[in-house]
Amino acid sequence: MPSFNFKQPSSSTNLDNTSVTNQSHQHHHRKHINTDADIAVGAGTSTFEIVEEELDHDQDTQSVTRRLKDIMSDNSAVINTFIAGGLAGAASRTVVSPLERLKIILQVQASTSAVSSSGQAYGGVWESLGRMWKNEGWRGFMKGNGINVVRILPYSALQFTSYGAFKSVLGTWSGETTLSTPLRLTAGAGAGIVAVAATYPLDLVRARLSVATSGMSIKSASGGFTAEDAKLGMIGMTKKVYRTEGGVRGLYRGCWATAVGVAPYVSLNFYIYESLKSMILPESLSLSASEPELILRKLGCGALAGATSLIFTHPFDVLRRKLQVAGMSYMSPQYNGAIDVIRWIIKNEGFWKGMYRGLVPNLIKVTPSIAVSFYTFETVRDLLAAVGEE
């Protein structure tokens, strides 16, 4: 009977196979471990790079912000002066907007006798204000104030800022700790010229708008402004002047006469205000006086400075307005320059009546206007300085 002898595998063989198998599994497992480690290291490196980039970006942003803060900090006095000056001008002109418009109308209309038959002439201050309210209401009082504020914001800001800059330059040049009277007047004159040159076209357009909507201008079909022109806004009036009166030259009509008049006015304004303030508001008073008293004294200084300056410089203001509306043929003769205007006024109306036309409403306007301007300027400037120190 045949026998079947099955050879059993030895234990060593099993162990060897198992060992090989285990080694294979371990080697495979090590591959996974190494791969996971590589991924972990790569992810960590990538994360670090991203974080580093973000930190670099944040540092750049902080660096720019820090530089801007440093610049603003170094120039905080100039920035505060610019902002306070602009707000002072806007506040002062809005307060007296009806009187500002009436002053322009009285300055540029023909003499009362020449137009009395047409019923177009404006007379006394209160009568004229009543007529303005009756015909146009609140909008009549504020007519032209929008462009006036647009003009006065940069004008007043540049005026106050330029005055400080000129004082600083002149102080360095002269070596004087406290500027002498001539140098202070020079600083004021320079500030006035800078402000006028920068904003004159807006002033001219504002004057045209005030007159074109007053009821006196809708009379002529041969030239000047018509009933449709009275509806023009700031942009429309600017385009009309530019198109019909010689471009930029038309927008700067009467600029030099304005600068000549404004320069002494601004000089006297600053000089008289600072002089009055040193007498009426000495530093010792701020420790003992009440807040309402200090406010009244500040307003008083500004009011006296404005009124006094105006008496000396009002003829230049009349001259400026006459030149600004010279393109309106039915409003006044066509002048050949400032000297021609002065000759015509003196010949036909006399010096005092002609050159000081509109003085009363101008005084009524300027007195509170300058008072509010200086008070607002100093209040806003001090407030901004206090905020900056916190």
TrEMBL record:
Membrane topology per record: Multi-pass membrane protein
Biased composition (Polar residues): 1-24
Keyword DNA damage among UniProt keywords: no
GO biological processes: transmembrane transport
Localization terms from the record: Mitochondrion membrane
Gene3D superfamilies on file: Mitochondrial carrier domain
SUPFAM superfamilies: Mitochondrial carrier
Protein name as annotated: Solute carrier family 25 (Mitochondrial phosphate transporter), member 23/24/25/41
Matches recorded under InterPro entries: MCP, MCP_dom_sf, MCP_transmembrane
Keywords: Membrane, Mitochondrion, Repeat, Transmembrane, Transmembrane helix, Transport
GO cellular component: mitochondrial membrane
Family: Belongs to the mitochondrial carrier (TC 2.A.29) family.
